[in-house]
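Entry:
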Amino acid sequence: MNAVNGQYGKVYITGAGPGDVNLVTLRAKAVVELADVILYDNLVNPEILSWARPDALRISVGKMPYCSVVTQETINETMVEHAKLGKQVVRLKGGDPLIFGRGAEEASFLKENGISFEIIPGVTSSLAAGAYSGIPLTHRDASQMVLFVTGHTKKGSTKGLNFDWKMLAAFEGTIVFYMGVKNLQLITENLVAAGKSPHTPVAVVENGTLLHQRVISGILSEINDQVAAAAVGTPALIIVGDVVRYHQELDWFADIQKQFKQQIA
């Protein structure tokens, strides 16, 4: 073994939460503070990295939809390399590592290479963005089901997706599309073409939980033009369903944002 005292290190596949550092779990904070090596994604709040030891090695493995910088193979090999040196490695991922986070793929690679690992859940962005925009993903009077859908494939395109658009259009609960804002027009047009009412409420939440969060709400037939006019970027979530109607009533975070702007004005 090429390791300290003949022992490999351990890898902690860790959810960094949706953006606001106050939503990071205690377990995630603890492993970051003890880590020898941290491999972190692009969407991880930089403040989280400040919790690490000064001598901890910080490695950016950030990837963005449509413009990947570091390959998944490189990330996998880097985790194993440092673990085999006896290091305690934190693989820090935005949101939750098992919700469209490729955490399972990384865990499988570690297992194949004889590296022990722990998976630490994080608050996934759909739950947090819903809460911070006053949009309950479930509501007794509006939705008893939630469906999470990825808005792009491994290659960053919906062309290869096997979406059952008729099933999605008929779904009576809330639909949340992750990583789909670049394909918003395709998503909305296909939903309507498959039978979803063009008047179905929809919201796009950009930079959820952060002080510069923006929420663009409307209906399926109009939301694409609204989002284009607002120049919405990534990260952003698309929430489709009647629960969006609660946004104006329950948008508590808008008051926090207003207070912050007044303080810095």
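The first helix runs from residue 26 to 34.
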